[in-house]
Amino acid sequence: MHPILNNDVAAWRKQYRDDAEFLERLRAQELMNMTDERALEIIRSLVCAQPPWRERRDWSGLIEQQDIFHRRSKS
């Protein structure tokens, strides 16, 4: 690799590492200062914490499936 490019890559890597360490420290500080109420608010705002978008069926179909398999074994 060309020496100038090599120095650019090394400088970029160092800057990336420094930035990543800074962001890790910042995030850790934010988490330490977060209240339980704020944490709960964030959790509730997640899509996965919302109720399902459609109603669940009252049955799973297991009985019907067992009936189908049972009929096949008799044939």
Keyword list:
75 residues; 0% strand; elongated
**Share in helix:** over 70%
The total of beta strands comes to: 0
Order of helices and strands: HHH
Largest sheet: none
Roughly what is the average pLDDT, rounded to an integer? Answer: 81
- The low-confidence parts are none
Distance between the termini: 73 Å
Count of individual helical segments: 3
The share of residues in extended strands comes to: under 5%
Indicate the structural class.
mainly alpha
Shape designation = elongated
Radius of gyration: 28 Å
Write the layout of secondary structure elements.
Layout: H1 3-33, H2 36-45, H3 62-74
3D architecture notes:
There is one protein chain. The protein is mostly helical. It is built from three helices and no strands. The N and C termini lie far apart (73 Å).
Brief digest:
By secondary structure, this protein is an all-alpha fold.
